[in-house]
Design a protein that fits this description.
With 194 residues, the chain is an alpha+beta fold. Helices cover 21% and strands 39% of the residues. The structure holds guanosine-5'-diphosphate-alpha-D-mannose (GDD) and magnesium ion.
Amino acid sequence: MKNSRIRNIRKELLSDNWYTLNKFTFEYRKEDGTWETQQREAYDRGNGAAILLYNKKKRTVVLTRQFRMPTYVNGNEDGMMIEVCAGLLDGDHPEDCIRKEVEEETGYQIHDVQKVYETYMSPGSVTEILYLFIGAYEDRMKVGEGGGAEHETENIEVLEVSFDGALGMMRSGEIKDAKTMMLLQYALISGLLD
Ligand SMILES: Nc1nc2c(ncn2[C@@H]2O[C@H](COP(=O)(O)OP(=O)(O)O[C@H]3O[C@H](CO)[C@@H](O)[C@H](O)[C@@H]3O)[C@@H](O)[C@H]2O)c(=O)[nH]1
Ligand SMILES: [Mg+2]
């Protein structure tokens, strides 16, 4: 970390229940050269990976559906979110993480994955970098039911939908998850399923 615009960074732990919330107090050098003190909170839940599973022949994609409490308390009526498969790195390399997560959540054992973007999803408040992948799947790669890890009480539903159907769900607002929208738009722009 190097930035000549900031100095005297102090960190105060506000919460470390499931993940970590810190308050940072620091001095920031403005354009006119003077220093001002600022405070910013940063929620650290580690980094994550997400993947768009696609089948070019069938022109389909695999998505997941699960309850997301933070959306429920902010306007998402039933709290259910349709998303690409995703998970936290938990110390794994992003590629290893996403392969593991795909099998756990969707039941597919996939081979090749390709990273298309790295993104800070909420840079004003959350430290997380999300690694976005695409990966081809076929019916014969299905080795289990998916649904998520039992001990994590994830209750994930697996959806196989047509690519056009998924694009329609994005346009209608049924899909509201940013990483999912980014990957669907990537697929559209790059002609991935053409
Ligand atoms: N008890 C408890 N459990 C939690 C809490 N927060 C998360 N969990 C458990 O931890 C699991 C983490 O599952 P993953 O599949 O590894 O992560 P994810 O929640 O799907 O996260 C992915 O999507 C996020 C949202 O788009 C991304 O932010 C993240 O990077 C990742 O890609 C959750 O399903 C849930 O069971 C919490 O506050 N308390
Ligand atoms: Mg997940």
